[in-house]
Write a structure and sequence with these properties.
This protein is mostly helical and 72 residues long. Helices cover 60% and strands 0% of the residues. It has two helices and no strands. The longest helix is centred in the C-terminal third of the chain and has 22 residues, at 50-71. The protein is flat.
Amino acid sequence: MKKSLKKLFLIVVFTSITFVSYAQGPGGGPGPCTSPPCNPPNPPGLPIDGGAIFLLSSGLIYAINKLRRKEE
C-alpha cells in the first residue's frame, strides 16, 4: 500500500511540475528592431549562485564530519 501511494505521489508531483513549466508564456521582449544593434549581446557565463555555494559548503561539512568520526 505504501509503495503504490509513493508512486502516485511522485506521478502527481512530476506531472504538476511539467504543467507549471509549460504554463510560462512566451517572452514578451521589446518590439521590432528600429536601430542597430538589433540582437542583444550574449549573456556572460554561468553565474555561481547560492545553490552552488550551498552544495560546496554541505560537501565540506560532510567531509569534516566523516574525518572526525574516522579518528574516533
